[in-house]
Amino acid sequence: MAAVSIKGVTKAFGTTTAVDDVHLDVHEGQFLTLVGPSGCGKTTLLRMIAGLETPTRGAIEIHGSTVFSAERRVNVQPYARRIGMVFQSYALWPHMTAFDNVAFPLRRAAGRRWSPGRPRRSEVEGRVLRALEMVHCEDLARRHPGEMSGGQQQRVALARAIVGSPRLVLMDEPLSNLDAKLRARLRFELRSIQQELGFTALYVTHDRAEAMSMSDVVVVLRDGRIEQVGPPDEVYHHPASSYVSDFLGDHNLVRCRVAQRDAAGIGLETPLGRARAKPAVGAGVETGQAVVAAIARGAISVDRLTTQHLDGDAAGGVAEVAGVAYYGWYSEVLLRLERGDEVTVRTEGRTDLELGERVRAEVTAIAAVEVDAGADLEPAGAAPAPGDGAEQVTTGKALA
Prior knowledge:
The protein is of the alpha+beta class. The chain folds into two domains: 2-233, 3-Layer(aba) Sandwich (Rossmann fold); 238-395, no CATH class. It is 22% helix and 36% strand. The chain has helices spanning 42-50, 98-110, 124-134, 150-162, 180-197, 208-214, 232-237, 242-248, 307-310; strands spanning 2-13, 16-27, 31-35, 57-62, 65-69, 74-75, 83-86, 168-172, 200-205, 217-222, 225-230, 251-262, 265-270, 273-277, 290-296, 300-304, 317-326, 330-337, 342-348, 358-363, 368-371, 392-395. Helix 2 (98-110) packs parallel to helix 4 (150-162). The two termini are 48 Å apart.
């Protein structure tokens, strides 16, 4: 039985469709992440599961029970859905202590005779203290939100979400307001708590690192529809479209042409010379078609030019180093190709390539190929994105 089953759910705000005919099953105990850019519908979908937004069409089931059905006119109130929720803005009562904030849902439930899983009043204190201890905030029980850091407030908000022992916890970009080092630490803590307690987690983020590092399943949304569903490594290494490749932020999108197609794969003419893709990567493309290839930043090798390169006897294409960014454990190099395209290459450690230097670049693997429909794509090699640590960036001109 699925922990959550979403059946043809649509949500329209006037003439704008935010979520469009989504079908999705979330299995018991999974950590599933909804990921996509702003406006893709991920938060709206999460809020409909919580009961904070009413779908226009479709049905939602939680642990086999229908909590919403447009056809049957069922709409179970949020408190009766027995879920926990962590908001982006913490949503703590400023006049209450950490203890009272965490205790709030238990006290509300204890006062409702009809509330499912209603705790005894004598149980409340013990459950609150256990929840605070689990998020390492037991020493903050008597502090108010204004006396706590952002990370501490978010831990308290998580304690409030899990104190009622829900089987399903929804999290809406809970780490986005925190600094990079704290985000990285809380990723581990959130995942550890989820695995220890065994609840099903639905997590919303626009952060690729969060989606890739925490999830059992990643769902990429585009304009209110599901673009791809799968384990993180599958979505990363085998993106279903150039949109997925582009959003994950680690691929160059390069326009090229199919030179040949056979049982062994696809031959492509790229700005970086000839390259081959596996048969499954370019399903549906034909010889002679203009296509877009998704090439990971780590799937381009770079060498200094030699006489062999200049004589045209080596594979690959000639490029100029247009920018260098050093992140401590790796470097990213922005290459400007001869026809004007730009690609970003990732290398281990500090690169010794210099600005303006001409190099030879060659594609070693292709993640995805699709027909070039003339869509307005992001440049193949946008300026190297900042990492979580210190970085040093050198460019020939403004690359922002």
